[in-house]
Amino acid sequence: MKAYLIQMLKEIALLGAIRDKIEISSIELSNQIDTSQQTASRYLLELDKKGMITRELGIKKQLIQITDLGKTTLQEEHLQYQQIFELTNRIYISGKVVSGIGEGSYYTEQINYIKQFQEKLKFKPFPGTLNIEIKHIEKNKIRLVKKYNAILINEFKNNNRTFGGVKCFHAKIENIKGAIVLPIRSHYSNILEFISPYFLRKKLKLKDGDFVKIIIFLKN
Amino acid sequence: MKAYLIQMLKEIALLGAIRDKIEISSIELSNQIDTSQQTASRYLLELDKKGMITRELGIKKQLIQITDLGKTTLQEEHLQYQQIFELTNRIYISGKVVSGIGEGSYYTEQINYIKQFQEKLKFKPFPGTLNIEIKHIEKNKIRLVKKYNAILINEFKNNNRTFGGVKCFHAKIENIKGAIVLPIRSHYSNILEFISPYFLRKKLKLKDGDFVKIIIFLKN
DNA sequence: ATTACTAGTAAGCGAGTAT
DNA sequence: TATACTCGCTTACTAGTAA
Fold first, then answer.
1. pTM for the full predicted model
2. Which domain holds residue A123?
């Protein structure tokens, strides 16, 4: 979504086009966003094409209303500004259950990890992680979480292999306690790994594609 | 301010650059906003030039922090989204006292207006209006206010002249009660007219250029 | 590794204007 | 009145690469 289209959509929303149809001409909109009538017209066409607004062209002006898709787009923007200015000590993320590549199980079976989890998180993790695919927009939240003081699980060597350190945060998934695990050395991924004392797929009757809600607790 | 620069600034803020300096490379930022390294670099140069961010270029990556100006810019965006999704029954506007062209006094001395003000607003306005110049960004709020059910003051004729109808909203200026007056037939102006039972310039010791805070009360 | 310049290409803009 | 097309001009983009 181009930045100028979001700006235009926001202007239309400020005029009240989320609740009602608003009557406005392209020239009025062009004055509002300080551009030409032609550009305002083009923006409206683009927003219409993307399904962000509906239009009823009359002989004079046009009736414009923002669609659910358009509203969702603006809400995602709003969420980002809330994160910037209104952040509290909890972060809410929703995502979709997906199958991992089996690495999670391997990791959570390492005795050195298990010891640290028990000591620092106060629970013994069930072998394996539950992988949650989060929306692109929500990746911002993960980046932000990473800035906070995490519970650190140190790296260690086992025979010839090095197991990297991870950052953990206490979290809940559908109200079941556990933690999220973020590898220290990794790019921002859209997969969140959740560990818990329970076999979550069974306890929560989860299958791939199910949507779940996660709350991450930040320490400070 | 170009839309893409605000978007970039928001992304940097999401990484925590309002509180602290963050260490990030142009290529990491380019991945985040889905563009090339060169474009991300150019955006940073533009933001720096506008005084929105400060940068410390090292041999590797760069330390970026958002300036007060940058923060203010983002807060204005945030305010707009709050207006869209969190609107309550009060609207807060700040502005600067300016001198009008003397028309306000003429209007508020018309007996027909005075009668209506007394009946509908429950106070007798002091002759003249206090003119408040609002920032461009705040004009959105006025547009929104206009969508609400106002207290209507009807138009009337006096000899050969027609006095147009106005919309009023109960309001407070620096905690002194009164009302704002919006001409029904007018384009969106950046001047807000405030009426009150008192001579506000004296009561509040106001002179041109002073900043004041206004609260507008919406009926529903 | 980085940042950011150059230059060629693509996208966006708005005056004029058809509808 | 409107909206929105064409087209010449400007701005923005990125591959290549210097520093």
1. 0.66
2. 88-217
Distance, CA of B113 to CA of B31 (rounded, Å): 61
Which chain A residue shows the shortest CA-CA distance from B189? Answer: A32
Q: How far is the CA of B158 from the C1' of C10 (A)?
A: 62
> Distance (Å) from CA A197 to C1' C15?
68
Neighbours of B67 (CB within 10 A): 17
User: Do B65 and B98 lie in a common domain?
Assistant: no
Q: What are phi and psi for residue B80, nearest 5 degrees?
A: -65, -40
pLDDT in tens, chain B (220 residues): 899 999 999 999 988 888 888 888 888 889 888 889 999 999 999 999 999 999 988 777 788 999 999 999 999 899 889 888 886 677 888 889 998 776 666 778 888 889 999 999 999 999 889 999 887 556 656 766 776 778 999 988 887 888 888 889 999 999 899 999 988 876 657 789 999 999 999 999 999 999 998 989 886 4
Quote the tokens at residue B9. 């600034």
A137 vs B: CB within 8 A: no
B79 lies in some domain: no
Could you tell me if B65 and B151 lie in one domain? Answer: no
Q: Which of A36, A35, A37, A48 is nearest to A9 (CA)?
A: A48
Same domain, A100 and A64: no
Residues lining strand D, beta carbon within 7 angstroms: A 25-27, 37-38, 41, 44-45, 57, 59-62; B 2, 4, 35-36, 38-39, 42-43
| Nearest Cα residue to A197 out of A163, A173, A166 | A173
* Residue B45 contacts strand C, CB under 7 A: yes
**B82 part of a folded domain:** no
Q: Are B3 and B80 in contact (CB under 8 A)?
A: no
**Residue B60: which CATH number?**
1.10.10.10
Pick out the nucleotide with least CA–C1' distance to A25: D2
Residue B147 and residue B40 in one domain? no
